[in-house]
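Example (one chain per record):
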Amino acid sequence: MSDENKFNFSEEENSQVTNEMNKEAAVEEKKAAVKKDAQGLFASIKTFLSELLDFRDDTDRDATITAIKADIPFKGATAWILVCSIFVASIGLNANSTAVVIGAMLISPLMGPILGVGLSIAINDIDTLRKSLINLAIMIVLSLLTAFLFFWLFPLSADTSELLGRTRPDIRDVLIAFFGGLALIIARTKKELSLRLFLVLLLQQP
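Predicted structure:
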């Protein structure tokens, strides 16, 4: 092979190598551009979700603590409201009426001490915890006595589905309690309580 042919062959090899390097560089540039676009997209989605789900600006910590502590005491009108709600719930269970049971939930004041227990544990307030537990125990005893009195006067002729449905809890009941409690917490921390959130508070009674 002549020197000229060798020289031409070397030039062709160099040209191929250069083309391959250019292609690889173009591929790397495209990969970097795609990666940059993906990072920008993820950052935009993260920012959007953060702004969508952030409710810190709409909360009032001090007012929430004050409101929860105000619902803990159990005396006077609160005691009578509890007795009435237990009678209504007992009638609903006896009559196998879901609507009546829900009505009892709407007027029951049991959630006050329960929220007080949760709050006192969260902020490490021993006095509030003791007060909440005492009031909760009194409310439970009064509820049991009221229910006993009703069913002693009006005994069940047969086990109703409303009653049996509350004796066999499963994981769905746990999920209802968890997400219902979460909704209740968010609702109680709002600066302004709307009618919808007020109903959420009422319907989360035990």
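Caption: The chain has a mean pLDDT of 77.
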